[in-house]
Design goal:
By secondary structure, the protein is an all-alpha fold. Helix content is 73%, strand content 1%. The protein is built from 18 helices and two strands. Strands 1-2 form a two-stranded antiparallel ribbon. It is globular, with a radius of gyration of 21 Å.
Length: 469
């Protein structure tokens, strides 16, 4: 039954072929990017083919991995994230020849997290995701990029240590490594409680939940723009997927252990993230705090602890990721050779490039949750999940956080549509690959807001991993 893992196998093969392309061809050639993109396309085709398979779900390697509709949706999301990051940074000499190889390696880690059902597989996925991103964060070669890579490495290693300690305590308390074999009724409770707390802390650190969010703004600001895009979208998908897998598979009948704590963290994260975004003048830092707030929205879906929450979380990841891709693509175009952009740099954008201003508007309105965008539909489903779980506090916290966030997202648009003191004559270059990402992301964002039914059907089916119980 290992055919079910061919999406992951194809990425492994693609990593080696891409490495060979880097070595055989000129280290500054474009062949490695084409091989990397072809790998993503092939893995996506196999994922779609697996979706129609009647033999899923299937547990492999002693239940260490579980391939089901949930893992296939996670595959699809992280493949979109990888394709977007690769195309935004397409053949850019500033990021080194190994950029596509590292993107694929991190992609493999994200895919592993989507199907993990074992402590060892969980840890392998986390490290396989994190290690390439440490290098990518420092790949710009500047002082800011090196600082971002070092901060990410040190704090990531710290969180991995906490996670590993928590998993060790859980193994000691339960005697099993498999999520679905965990039975809190037969665990050594003090060990199990400590292990669960440390494991959740390690995972929410990767997700960027308050108060474990301090590393995100500095790392996002110093990293190259395509890498920041990848971390903002792909890392959120991987961390949210494994947190849901771990809690719903191993502790679904004991939500009283973790549900209230995650609910409080969700409200705190939504409000604090959006409040801090209000004060930012750098767009990468603004989107970093926006990512923190959106991690809080995702945590609402997990805290609700019902199928509505699982569906809402999986749905929300798509419009959030599309808005992130669109926003960072616009920043990449306007910034040009720079790797950062302030709010003042957007002044007069609507007069220099009306289409870019329009696309940025769609991205920001979707992040704010304005109707007729995918972000609005995603937030609606999250509120619905919280209410169905009899947790009105979560729903109120989400609404308050969204209202605060609206003020933060309007600030870039206010600058973009204001008249510049001196009209800039420098044209804005539209790279072909990045333009494809931008147009597709914006059209899909509007499409999700107008007609979300096909994606809703897919996520409804993917949340059926409750067959385990």
């Amino acid at each position: 039954m290992t055919y079910a893992l061919w999406p992951e196998y194809s990425v492994v093969i693609g990593v080696f072929v891409t490495m060979i392309a880097v070595m055989v061809f000129n280290r500054r050639s474009i062949q490695a990017y084409w091989v990397g993109l072809a790998t993503i396309v092939v893995s996506g085709i196999i994922t779609i083919a697996d979706w129609s398979s009647k033999s899923l779900p299937v547990a492999l390697y002693g239940h260490a991995v579980t391939v089901d509709a949930f893992s296939l949706v996670v595959n699809g999301l992280v493949l979109v994230a990888a394709a977007g990051a690769l195309m935004i940074g397409w053949n850019d000499k500033r990021y080194g020849p190994d950029f596509p190889v590292l993107v694929l390696l991190a992609l493999l880690g994200m895919m592993v997290l989507g199907l993990a059902n074992n402590f060892v597989v969980l840890f392998i996925g986390i490290e396989l995701l994190s290690l390439p991103l440490y290098i990518l964060a420092a790949s710009r070669g500047t002082g800011e990029s090196g600082e971002a890579g070092l901060k990410y490495l040190l704090l990531g290693a710290f969180s991995s240590g906490i996670l590993l300690f928590g998993l060790a305590l859980l193994y000691g308390a339960s005697g099993t490594l498999v999520f679905t074999h965990l039975d809190p009724a037969h665990m050594i409770l003090p060990l199990a409680g400590a292990g669960l707390a440390l494991t959740v802390v390690g995972l929410v650190f990767k997700l960027g939940i308050v108060p474990f969010h301090m590393w995100i703004p500095d790392v996002y600001e110093g990293s190259p723009l395509p890498v920041t895009t990848y971390m903002a979208f792909g890392t959120k998908v991987g961390a949210a997927a494994i947190l849901m897998r771990f809690l719903f598979f191993g502790f679904s009948l004991d939500a009283g252990w973790w549900g209230p704590a995650l609910g409080y963290l969700a409200v705190l994260t939504m409000v604090v993230g959006n409040l801090l975004a209000l004060a930012q003048k750098d767009l990468k830092r603004l989107l970093a705090y926006s990512g923190i707030a959106n991690a809080g929205y995702l945590l609402v879906g997990i805290s609700a602890h019902n199928m509505f929450g699982a569906r809402a979380l999986l749905f929300y990841l798509l419009p959030y990721g599309l808005a992130v891709l669109a926003a960072f693509a616009v920043i990449q175009f306007v910034a040009g050779e720079r790797d950062s952009l302030s709010l003042d740099d957007l002044t007069g954008l609507a007069y220099r490039s009306p289409w870019l201003a329009a696309f940025l508007t769609v991205a920001m309105l979707s992040l704010a949750g304005i109707p007729l965008t995918g972000g609005f539909v995603g937030k609606f489903y999250l509120i619905q999940a919280a209410l169905f779980a009899n947790q009105p506090g979560l729903a109120i916290g989400l609404v308050v956080g969204a209202m605060v966030g609206l003020a933060a997202y309007v600030r870039p648009l206010q600058r973009a549509f204001s008249k510049a003191a001196g009209e800039s004559s420098e044209p804005i270059r539209w790279p072909v690959a990045g333009s494809i990402v931008l147009v597709v992301a914006v059209v899909a964002t509007i499409g999700l807001g107008v007609y979300p039914a096909p994606v809703v059907h897919i996520v409804n089916h993917s949340a059926a991993f409750y067959w385990l119980h």
